[in-house]
Amino acid sequence: MAIKSETAIVLPRIDIRLMEVTVIGDSPLIVHAWSQKAKLQMLDKQMKRAVGAKEAKDPVADFEASLYRLDDGGHGFPSVAFKTAAVTAITSVGGLTKVAARQAFHIIGEDVDVVGAFDGTRARQNLVRLVSGEPSMREDLVRVGMGTADLRYRGEFSEWAARLLVRFNANVLSEAQILNILNVAGFAVGIGEWRPERDGQHGMFHVATESDLARLGGAA
Predict the structure, then answer these.
(1) CA 13 and chain centroid, separation
(2) Closest C-alpha among 163, 213, 155 to residue 30
């Protein structure tokens, strides 16, 4: 009877590291969180509920609902937006694919609970804290379905920064590559509404220089 030999399986070590990267906004950031009202309207339509008369527009309420709030009342922005921008920017950086980059790093922020449209439901959202002053309310004329015009009221941060905690596999990406990818992402892709990726100029950023960090530390 033949005896089967057993071969040990050796798994390559994953070299997981953390690094903090500060990014500085180069153009105003326009935020547009999903409002509770919009989610309820979507759910009503999907559940085929009777819809009453359209509510009067409340610009101040729309502005407040557009903001991403942290548990202590501070302002944030979805951490996944920074990662998505970086992964999109990979096409401009040689030697890496989007798939490899998507699997090689994560951007970690602060978890907050968001109330769902259906009674009793919640969703966990991860936000990067914004270093900024209070947002201003901006008014924009936008085109919606079938070319209909509408006025939208959203928050805008004219000057902003963010400290990104990056968790990455050093076997795939180096610190220098991450900094390069984020720099390209801030210039070519951006975050938020009307960013370069969507033919706009908002939400652009760059990796902070030493002078940026000194200035930011002084402002804090």
Answers:
(1) 30
(2) 155
Structure tokens that stand for 179 in this block: 């900094």
In sequence order, the 6+-apart residues with CB closer than 8 A to the CB of 164 are 20, 21, 22, 23, 79, 82, 107, 128, 182
User: Which CATH number is 17-35+58-219's, of 3.30.70, 2.160.20, 3.10.310, 3.30.390?
Assistant: 3.30.70
CA 194 to CA 184: how far, in whole Å? 17
pLDDT by residue (tens digit) across 19-45?
999 999 999 999 999 888 888 778 778
Better pLDDT: 76 or 115:
76
Integer Cα distance of 216 and 163 in angstroms: 11
Amino acid making up residue 115: V
Amino acid of residue 146: M
Q: What is the SS3 assignment for 152?
A: strand
What is the distance between the alpha carbons of residues 72 and 13, in angstroms, rounded to a whole number?
38
Please answer whether residues 153 and 53 qualify as being in contact, where contact means their C-beta atoms are separated by less than 8 angstroms.
Answer: no
Closest CA to 133 of 158, 154, 109: 158
H or E element in which residue 202 lies: none
Contact 55, 160 (CB under 8 A): no
- For residue 189, give the amino acid letter: V
Please tell me the pTM assigned to this model: 0.87
Position of tokens 């220089």? 209
Answer for the pair 126, 66: CB distance below 8 angstroms, yes or no. no
SS3 label, residue 23:
strand
